[in-house]
Amino acid sequence: MTLDNPTPQKNSFWSAPVRILRRELLPLITDLRLAIILLLVIAAFSITGTVIEQGQTLAFYQANYPEHPALFGFLSWKVLLMLGLNDVYRTWWFLALLILFGTSITACSFTRQLPALKAARRWKFYDQPRQYQKLALSAELDLETRNLASLPNLSQLLQQRRYKIFQDTEKNNLLYARKGIVGRIGPIVVHIGIVVILLGGIWGAMTGFLAQEMIPSGSTFKVNNIIEAGPLAQGQVPKDWSVRVNRFWIDYTPSGGIDQFYSDMSVLDSQGKEVDHKKIYVNEPLRHKGVTFYQTDWGISAVRVRINKSPIFQLPMASLNTNGNGRLWGTWIPTKPDLSAGVSLLAKDLQGTVLIYDSAGKLVDTVRTGMSTEVNGVTLKILDVIGSTGLQIKADPGIPIVYTGFALLMAGVVMSYFSHSQVWALQKDGCLYIGAKTNRAQVAFEREVLEILDKLSLQQKDKEEPVAV
Predict the structure, then answer these.
(1) Which of 75, 198, 210, 238 could form a disulfide with 228 if both were Cys (CB 3.0 to 4.6 A apart)?
(2) In the structure, how many helices (H) and strands (E) does the chain have?
């Protein structure tokens, strides 16, 4: 009685899946047509994510993408949310497309580009004249028996053109030369760059977040109002440090328009000590520990007033609906202790002008900050109009990876322009056989080979001419 050997069973168990992977799945993944289709699909959905507003509220999509009539007859807010077109770059199917495309590029590199590079690095001498006739460029030169220096002359000419020379040390009649091997490495670097970009995009989608805050001047805050976040984004949200808006102000043009708005900001550690400081404005953000604070909006948060000789009151101001006729903020100030009477204060900017209306909606006075007015039998003094800064806060750990991928991609494209040129030579039976080929720039390579042959022929003639005595 014999016991079965488990090893053959194990090998037979795995042989079928491996065979299917190699014969059916691998050729499909490495197919250039599949990679092109995936790239076009990714580009199409990326354009969709640019055209369709991303990360907006449900009310926004219901208002802009109604069911009746639906955009293009089918694209309503329900379809948009169901397909995830409101957040394209974080959907599972978009990430799956990126992974599949990266897998295709990686498999192509291992099955095609790396073997091509290995083949280019492997070389052999051609020691038969008939082998030269099969090359793209070939020539045969007759040599005199006394002219044994033709092969060294050819080697010297090739070295002058930066070819790497390999010669047969035994027979000393064979030569192989090449240059531009970097051109074979270029496509591999391009593929690596694409894969790194995809990995950076996936990592950024998984770990990044986007937040928005409207912070009054002089306030300290932590990031709380997160709009978008990846499943692994919690580690990127600041927890042990905060930000203080020291001051917010707006520069106006002579005509009264906004020229630029600024926020003077300080980063505070857990003990309240300042560890970073910067004045930010549009296109000049604050960056700290991978989190970027962009200046994107502004508003009016409060007004500081005094009634007669009362303490200073800071009353919040709310944004009013003007039906698209500019921006306006307002608040109500009681002028009697029982709140039975009061006035409304309106402001449209931070230039310090405040409009005062009575309960009947009649304009009572126009006051600038620092000035007083008499209303309802009391003295109302406007001390200050406090602005608020609108910040967009973003963290994307994948950006350095993406930039690295783009650098590799550009370097690989430049490397791919180098031609991989090869030259073989055989000196045999009074003849010099020369053959050459290249993978690109065929016309320029032909000119180079002809110039080498012309110089070699001139050297032969110079050696054959008699010397006058």
Answers:
(1) 210
(2) 12, 21
Of the candidates 308, 294, 116, 306, the residue with the CA atom closest to the CA atom of residue 215: 294
Can you identify the CATH homologous superfamily of domain 123-180+419-463?
Sirohaem synthase, central domain (3.30.160.110)
Neighbours of 49 (CB within 10 A): 19
DSSP 71: B
Residue 360 sits at φ, ψ, to 5 deg, of -90, 0
Q: Are 405 and 200 in contact (CB under 8 A)?
A: yes
Strands 421-428 and 378-395: unpaired
Alpha carbons 327 and 323: distance in angstroms, whole number: 9
* Token couple for 278: 């910067």
- Give CA–CA dist 355/361, Å, rounded: 11
pLDDT in tens, the chain (469 residues): 444 555 545 455 556 566 666 666 777 777 778 888 988 998 998 888 888 888 777 888 888 888 888 777 788 888 888 888 888 888 888 888 988 888 888 888 888 777 877 777 777 888 888 888 888 898 888 776 444 457 888 888 999 999 999 988 777 889 999 998 888 888 889 989 999 999 998 898 889 999 999 999 999 999 988 888 888 888 888 889 999 999 999 898 888 788 898 999 999 998 989 999 999 998 899 999 989 999 998 999 999 999 988 888 899 999 998 887 888 999 999 888 888 888 999 998 888 889 999 888 899 899 998 899 998 888 999 999 999 999 999 999 999 999 999 999 999 999 988 888 999 999 888 888 899 999 888 898 999 999 888 887 766 555 555 444 3
Break the chain into its structural domains and give their ranges: 17-116, 123-180+419-463, 211-389
How far apart (Å, rounded) are the C-alpha atoms in residues 431 and 125?
A: 16
Residue 158 φ/ψ, nearest 5 degrees:
-70, -35
Other CB atoms within 10 Å distance of the CB of residue 412: 19
Residue type, 64: N
Instruction: Provide the 3-class DSSP secondary structure of residue 84.
Output: coil
Could you give the CA distance from residue 113 to residue 187 in angstroms, rounded to a whole number?
A: 7
Range 336-340 contact pairs with CB under 8 angstroms and sequence separation of 24 or more: 336/376
Please state the length of the chain.
469
Q: How many C-beta neighbours within 10 Å does residue 409 have?
A: 19
| 62: alpha, beta or left? (left if phi > 0; alpha if psi -120 to 50) | alpha
